[in-house]
Every structure is written in structure tokens, then in C-alpha cells.
Amino acid sequence: MKKLSLLFLVAALSISAFSAEKADAKAGASVTESKKVDMANIDAITSASIVPAAIVKEYIPKGFTDSKAKKALFVIGDPRHNSVTFDMAYTAMKFFEENGIEVTLRDLYAMKWNPVLSFDEFYYQKDGIGTPTQDVAEEQKLVTQADYIIFVYPNWHDSATSIVKGYQERVFAKEFAYTADNNGLRGLLKGKGLFTMMNCGFLGGGRGFIGNGVGISDEKWDSYMKAYKVFDDDLADWWGMDNYGRFMNDRYPKNLSENYPKEIEKLRNDLKASLQKTFIDKK
Q1: 241: closest CA among 73, 61, 62?
Q2: Tens of each residue's pLDDT in the chain, 283 residues
Q3: pTM (2 decimals)?
Q4: Using CB atoms within 10 A as the burial measure, which of 22, 63, 178, 275 is most buried?
């Protein structure tokens, strides 16, 4: 029975990893190659847990309206809609809307967002000279409407994924997000909150933020979290925003875990509890 359940889970993972992502014509070859994979090493190969198709809880937010409700802009940089990173985003977006906060999703890979700051737009982004390109102007309008900017990405080399970093570099331009004069640097996005959600690994074990280690390597966990706080404080200050902190998950379910449904549900509940404390209780 145990072998059958593992086979079922592996089959679900295969479906989730390829068909759920609407893979291109190369998917057939990829599936064939995947049969050669040593299943004992699947977690290392995939970099992070992939949610089986049967328990993915996709959530598409309704978007901003002209109401006076608080608004959260989710900027997500992960190509895999069945990743734990995206599962966290689905959970958070649904939580916000259930609590009266409007949500707009910017799925950067689906949008085919160009993260490269070109020479033609360099002087606008860095010096505030000229006008933004159409794609940047559209994002700036959403940022202006939003009360909260939520960046969501997996931990690839300890920082924002390149597509998210490129979004920050192109959208948060001088004279839009900040300015500088004889009195120094001044952020222009006053009253907005910056928050980050990141699915990670090898950061010491933990779930949440500073002080939320789980007894694996708490000193290492806190050293990473404190470093991220320094970075976030500086970025928020640069733009004139308030740093609302992070939700970091270093305890994602293993792909072949027999308790996967319970483990992913625990993660979802932990995330909602963190969002409740950060965004709802402090109103």
C-alpha cells in the first residue's frame, strides 16, 4: 500500500510539473527524461517542493476597483504555478480578499515582463529625465493605487529572482519612487507598506521571520533573517515606504512525503496567521 501511495504521488508530481504549467512541445521529451531521475534525489533536483496537482489551490484575485478598500499589489517571480512559492501566493491573495483587501496579481513570467533596463530608458529610471515606457507606466499606476506591495519569489541565490529585481529597477524609478535634492534622498511612496514572501532552503530551518527558527540551526536562521531586514529597511526607506517585514519558509514539504497534504496545509495556516498579525490586527 505504501508503494502504491508513493507511485500515485510521483504520478501526480509529473502531471503537476508538466501539464499544470502548460509545458511547450519539449514537454514530451522532458517527461521521457524524467523517468531516468533517481527519485531519492528529487528534492535536490527540483530545488523546491512541487505541489501535487490534486491539492493545488489556485486562486485568481479580482483586481483593484475604485473603492476606498485597502489594496495589495502582488508581484510574483516564479515560472512554476504549482510551486510552493505560488501556493503561498494563492493562500495570501485569497486571505487578503477574504479580509476586505483588494488584490491585483502581476505574474511576471506570464506577463513576459522584460527585466532588463535598456540604455534607451536608463536616464528616465536613474535620473528621472523623460517619460516611462508603456509597460513601466502601467505598473507605476498599479503601484500608485496600492497600499501594500508584496514581492513573492523563491530563494535562488539569496536575493530576489532576476525578473523581480528587474521589475524593481525599471518600475521604481527616480522622481516616481524617490527623489534627491540638496537635503539628500527622499522617498516618494509614503504611506505604503513593503512585504516579502520567500520560499527558501538551507537558511537554517524556520518559518516566519526573526526568532522563528524551529530548533535546527536557529542561530544561522536568525543571522539570515536579520540580514534580510537590513536590506528591506533600506529599500523601504529609499522608496519612502514602511517595511512590513517578511514571511520566509525554510520548511517546505518534501516531494515524496506521505504527509504532504497535512504539511502544505500547515504551511498555509502558518502564513495566514502571520498575515493576520501583520496586516489585519495592526489596523
Answers
A1: 73
A2: 444 444 344 444 444 443 444 443 333 334 334 445 555 556 655 667 889 999 999 999 999 999 999 999 999 999 999 999 999 999 999 999 999 999 999 999 999 999 999 999 999 999 999 999 999 999 999 999 999 999 999 998 889 999 999 999 999 999 999 999 888 899 999 999 999 999 998 899 999 999 999 999 999 999 999 999 999 999 999 999 999 999 999 998 888 888 999 999 999 999 999 999 999 997 6
A3: 0.86
A4: 275
Q: How many angstroms separate the CA atoms of 77 and 219, rounded?
A: 29
Domain ranges of the chain: 59-280
Cα dihedral 210, 211, 215, 221 in deg (nearest 10): 20
Q: Quick one: angle between helices 260-275 and 84-98, nearest 10?
A: 50
C-alpha cell at 68: 476606498
| C-alpha torsion 87→207→271→246, nearest 10 | -100
